[in-house]
Amino acid sequence: MPELPEVETVRRGLERWVIGKKLKNIQALHPRVERPDSWAPITSLEGAKVTGISRRGKFLWFELDRPQVLMAHLGMSGQFLVQPIGKVDERHVRARFTLAGGLQKNRELRFIDQRTFGWLAVDNLTDGIPSMAAHIAPDLFDPNFDQASIVANLRNRKSKIKSAILDQQILSGIGNIYADESLWAAKIHPERICGDLSAKKINLLIDSAREIMARALESGGTSFDDLYINVNGESGYFEVQLEVYGCEGEPCSRCGRLIKRISFANRSSHFCPYCQK
Ligand SMILES: [Zn+2]
Q: Is there a smaller number of Cβ atoms within 10 Å at the N or the C end of the chain?
């Protein structure tokens, strides 16, 4: 499942391959590829020129030479590929945009999504943010990210720290993998209550998450899912050393005790019972 570093890798790939192109001959190829509350069919964007690719959390949008934007969410397995027109389709191509203009000719952008949790939509901007992403808080790499106020917000909460850092309305972009990894780095048990943690500890947690995700970003994103491929068709397979996620029963690299896994809201938490009390 793509997390923030993967989505940012896709954003950079799209920036490189799609900015300056006109979207021609748009095809929606699956009934669920368009979000039901899309302002208009995605085919209504035919003829629009892409002027920028933005992201907030895991929401991506194509800025256009018109007031609307093309929104995209990769869901569990979404990918974008730029391919020569006429090249045999991958399985699960859900939408297609012929690209016109620019140096590379005869290319098309394909949105591929096996599990169909990803989607595309037409949306409008308010203060530079699409309405569909308006509820998403800035992420750790956003210039608008205000760490002091987020730490204060977390310290007022009675929820478990892991649930809170996964809540996209508090801060966005931390998914299950990076939540487990940053909690291990900051030596915090995933079920600790936010309000019981010091500001120093929460700052350490956020700094750890940022540092781990920055490392993943350098290596092109971390992913366990072989469905995940970045925009050029290269696998974004992980190169970041994971300390706890998926490491149940293996020794903790800090203390040597075995990593434990507990179930957590339909998912799992991985942690070291000794280092994370
Ligand atoms: Zn340990």
A: C
pLDDT digits (tens, 9 = 90+) for 26-37: 999 999 999 999
Q: According to CATH, what is the number of the domain 147-271?
A: 1.10.8.50
- Residue 246 alpha carbon to ligand 1 centre in Å: 15
Cα 165 to ligand 1 centroid, rounded to whole Å: 21
How many whole angstroms from 272 Cα to the centroid of ligand 1? 5
In the structure, ligand 1 is a single-atom ion and the residues with CB under 5 Å from it are 252, 254-255, 272, 274-275
Residue 14 and residue 231 in contact, taking contact as beta carbons nearer than 8 Å: yes
Cite the active site residues. Answer: 2-3, 58, 267
CATH of 4-133, one of 3.40.50.300, 2.30.30.30, 3.20.190.10, 3.40.50.720: 3.20.190.10
Between the CA of 269 and the centroid of ligand 1 the distance, in Å, is 15
Per-residue pLDDT reduced to its tens digit, 159-206 = 999 999 999 999 998 989 899 999 999 999 999 999 999 999 999 999
Q: What is the pTM of this model?
A: 0.85
Q: Taking the domains of the chain in order of start, what are their residue ranges? A: 4-133, 147-271
